[in-house]
Amino acid sequence: xxxxxxxxxxxxxxxxxxxxxxxxxxxxxxxxxxxxxxxxxxxxxxxxxxxxxxxxxxxxxxxxxxxxxxxxxxxxxxxxxxxxxxxxxxxxxxxxxxxxxxxxxxxxxxxxxxxxxxxxxxxxxxxxxxxxxxxxxxxxxxxxxxxxxxxxxxxxxxxxxxxxxxxxxxxxxxxxxxxx
Length: 180
Ligand SMILES: Cc1cc2nc3c(=O)[nH]c(=O)nc-3n(C[C@H](O)[C@H](O)[C@H](O)COP(=O)(O)O)c2cc1C
Description:
Elements: E1 22-26, E2 32-35, H1 37-43, H2 47-50, H3 65-76, E3 81-88, E4 94-105, E5 111-119, H4 123-141, H5 146-164, H6 168-177
Antiparallel strand pairs: 1-2, 1-5, 3-4, 4-5
Helix pairs in contact: 3-5, 4-5
């Protein structure tokens, strides 16, 4: 099964086409219930390898924990999240996405899961976000515990955003829209 496989990281990027969308649906814990064909083909997984697996199977070690903390804080409250994510393919390559994660409610307005749609991010946005994530990761690696790691890296991200007078969500959306 995919979850037991040890993946050796490769410095080789896979790109989404402009018109492609990666779509997935999860339960409340982030276990994958649906993945579209683009998802399977970009990440090099079969449907059987993805379904019922936690979304963290494509977590890239270059991604700071703080970003996922922000993601979960936002969606658990029933709000939508926008952000840039570097993901791992099953063969060790990577792909960047601009992700939108939205909560899914049933007919009684009870939160039942999440839906994510990801698009190709502009290269200009990745040039800006990558060094910020690298710095967050360094902070996390030198922190004394997982909890302080997330708090300190989010604090650093917050300081960067405060200097620009913007929230992470608007920052991410603006970067996505500033295509050159
Ligand atoms: C709808 C949805 C989509 C997600 N998509 C991704 C993703 O593409 N890549 C990723 O690393 N984590 C994604 N996550 C977050 C993971 O659930 C997880 O929090 C993250 O990979 C960090 O792993 P960890 O919580 O085990 O540290 C998604 C979560 C949800 C609810």
